[in-house]
């Protein structure tokens, strides 16, 4: 039977990460997979995570199953974080959540719930969007549609085109939104634009499916939750997926939350739990246990928030330096947009030949789309990286 199968091509994101790991050149620069890195190209365990983990493990006296929806402390802490205390209290009977294995797990279960309610449903995605959105949502049965989002020449959101596209989505259509730090472009809506977009969402009775993987990496945690909070206040139904991979640095622990907002949220939650039960039964505990421990403790929460903002500020400094060096070293493309993009990613907007040359000649690894993970750019590698990019653009 298995001899019928063929080896599939590598994942477009993780595959480049793997190539980078296999690269022997000591000068190599890894800008592919979205992980935060320090100046020494290390992805550390956050201090608040270390403390919460050892506290949690010292108190843990059983590995018995947790409730099917997930660890109650995790769900309570995460819901308070994303909705804020007041909004959560006002909507307590309209919000129901499940702990899920990372953002991917949340997107997948969320898509399966959508597919149970509306088989083969259309879902509108930004152009471009995170490469894994397509296989994740499509394999759950949904039908991919797209909306205009990005002005690739200027490196910013083309908001007029986006609004226009949302006007064309049929009533009750489902639109996937990136809460902040748009992956792959780093180009985000302003607060004012979010309010304007939601005017259209409300008018057209659209259902937002919000992917929140980088909360705290753009503005404050509260600012970055803006679309989630507007959705809770203004639309009858929404779905939110929150990932703890990046802002808690819990990548390998696969930790996230899937929240349903609406009068029938509890039914949606039960379908979500049943979908999970049909494949992986229930979410693993470890990462959620750590997050629940942090969010239940004021001192640990403050320490964690400081660490999130430290990562955010450092990425912004790297952005500013990268943009300045690129603009000093060539005049073919104005890279100022990199400084105003937010989060881990930006699209350089260079062509595939340039990307391949950078990889093969200079050992600089980025996605074929020319998406870079700015957090992979240590200061010590900045000169070399900007020199090489300028070189391929000009020779
Ligand atoms: C990325 O976009 O690089 C990250 O979200 C990692 C992943 O799973 O693709």
Strand content: 5-15%
- Tell me the number of structural domains: 2
Assigned CATH class of the largest domain: Alpha Beta
As for the CATH topology of the largest domain, it is: Aspartate Aminotransferase, domain 2
For the largest sheet, list the strands in their spatial order.
2-10-9-8-7-3-4
CATH architecture of the largest domain: 3-Layer(aba) Sandwich
Separation of the first and last Cα atoms: 51 Å
Number of strands: 13
CATH H-level superfamily of the largest domain: Type I PLP-dependent aspartate aminotransferase-like (Major domain)
Helix content: 40-55%
> What's the average pLDDT?
97
Name the poorly predicted regions: none
- Category by helix and strand content: alpha/beta
Which series of helices and strands comes N to C? HEHHHEHEHEEEHEHEHHEEHHHHEHEEH
Query: Which word captures the global form?
Result: globular
Report the C-alpha radius of gyration, rounded.
21 Å
Number of discrete helical segments: 16
Major sheet, described briefly? 7 strands, mixed
Task: Itemize the secondary structure elements and their pairings.
Layout: H1 14-22, E1 29-30, H2 47-59, H3 72-83, H4 85-90, E2 95-100, H5 102-117, E3 122-127, H6 133-138, E4 143-148, E5 150-151, E6 156-157, H7 159-168, E7 174-178, H8 191-203, E8 207-212, H9 221-224, H10 226-234, E9 238-243, E10 256-261, H11 265-279, H12 286-295, H13 298-329, H14 336-340, E11 345-347, H15 352-362, E12 364-365, E13 371-373, H16 379-394
Parallel strand pairs: 1-12, 3-4, 3-7, 7-8, 8-9
Antiparallel strand pairs: 2-10, 5-6, 9-10, 11-13
Helix pairs in contact: 2-12, 2-13, 3-12, 5-11, 7-8, 8-10, 13-16, 15-16
């Amino acid at each position: 039977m298995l001899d019928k199968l063929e080896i599939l091509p590598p994942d477009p994101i993780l595959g480049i990460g793997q190539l980078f790991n296999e690269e022997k050149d000591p000068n190599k620069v890894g800008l592919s997979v979205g992980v935060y890195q320090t100046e020494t190209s290390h992805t550390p365990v956050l201090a608040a995570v270390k403390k919460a983990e050892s506290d949690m493990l010292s108190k843990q006296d059983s590995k018995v199953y947790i409730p099917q929806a997930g660890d109650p402390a995790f769900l309570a802490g995460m819901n308070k974080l994303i909705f804020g205390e007041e909004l959560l209290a006002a909507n307590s009977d309209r919000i129901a959540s499940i702990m899920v294995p990372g953002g991917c797990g949340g997107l997948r279960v969320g898509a399966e719930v959508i597919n149970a309610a509306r088989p083969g449903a259309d879902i509108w995605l930004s152009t471009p969007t995170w490469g894994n959105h397509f296989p994740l949502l499509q394999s759950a049965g949904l039908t991919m549609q797209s909306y205009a989002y990005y002005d690739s020449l200027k490196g910013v959101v083309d908001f007029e085109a986006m609004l226009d596209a949302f006007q064309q989505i049929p009533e009750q259509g489902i639109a996937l939104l990136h809460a902040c730090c748009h992956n792959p472009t780093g180009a985000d809506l302003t607060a004012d634009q979010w309010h304007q977009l939601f005017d259209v969402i409300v008018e057209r009775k659209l259902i937002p499916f919000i992917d929140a993987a980088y909360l705290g990496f753009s503005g404050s945690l509260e600012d970055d939750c803006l679309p989630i909070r507007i959705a809770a206040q203004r639309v009858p139904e929404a779905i939110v997926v929150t990932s703890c991979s990046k802002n808690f640095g819990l990548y390998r622990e696969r930790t996230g939350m899937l929240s349903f907002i609406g009068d029938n949220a509890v039914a949606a939650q039960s379908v979500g739990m049943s979908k999970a039960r049909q494949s992986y039964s229930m979410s693993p505990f470890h990462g959620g246990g750590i997050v629940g421990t942090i969010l239940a403790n004021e001192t640990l929460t403050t320490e964690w928030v400081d660490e999130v903002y430290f990562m955010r500020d450092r990425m912004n400094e790297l952005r500013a330096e990268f943009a300045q060096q690129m603009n000093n070293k060539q005049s073919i493309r104005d890279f100022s947009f990199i400084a105003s993009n937010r989060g881990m990613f930006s699209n350089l907007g260079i062509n595939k030949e340039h990307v391949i040359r950078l990889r093969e000649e200079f050992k600089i690894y980025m996605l074929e789309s020319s998406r870079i993970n700015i957090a992979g750019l240590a200061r010590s590698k900045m000169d070399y990286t900007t020199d090489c990019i300028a070189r391929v653009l000009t020779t």
